[in-house]
Amino acid sequence: MYAVIEAGGKQYRVSEGEKVRIEKVEAEEGKAFVFDKVLLLGEGESVKVGTPYVSGAKVEGEVLRQARNRKIIIFKYKPKKRQRTKGGHRQPFTEIKITKISG
Fold it and tell me: Which biological process, per GO, is one annotated for this protein (predicted)?
């Protein structure tokens, strides 16, 4: 069984036992987390598509860790003007292991 969930303005295709990195959510490590915005549920040939969400469907998971991604270098410059700016960004994320899909 698989599902398409919405988290942090993005959509993720998940199945049971899978680890997924989503935008940071306020949850403690080791605690349960429930996604109630399920866009699609599929099992074999049968597929339920929500309008926009599947009613009564939920995806449960366990928070594994809260961390930050690798640094992304941002480099801006103006040609012929000797103007350069170098910066970096590390996006925070939450890693969740999907434990149960119900609907």
Answer: translation
Q: Round to whole Å and give the CA distance between 59 and 38.
A: 7
Q: What angle do CA 32, 34, 36 make, to 5 degrees?
A: 175
Q: What is the model's pLDDT at position 44? A: 85
pTM above 0.85, yes or no: no
CA-closest candidate to residue 63, choices 5, 22, 2, 12: 22
Which tokens belong to 28? 């403690």
Q: Residue 84's domain spans which residues?
A: 2-102
In degrees, rounded to 5, the angle at the alpha carbon of residue 70 between the alpha carbons of residues 10 and 64 is: 65
Structural domain count of the chain: 1
Angle at the Cα of 60 from the Cα atoms of 55 and 64, rounded to 5 degrees = 150
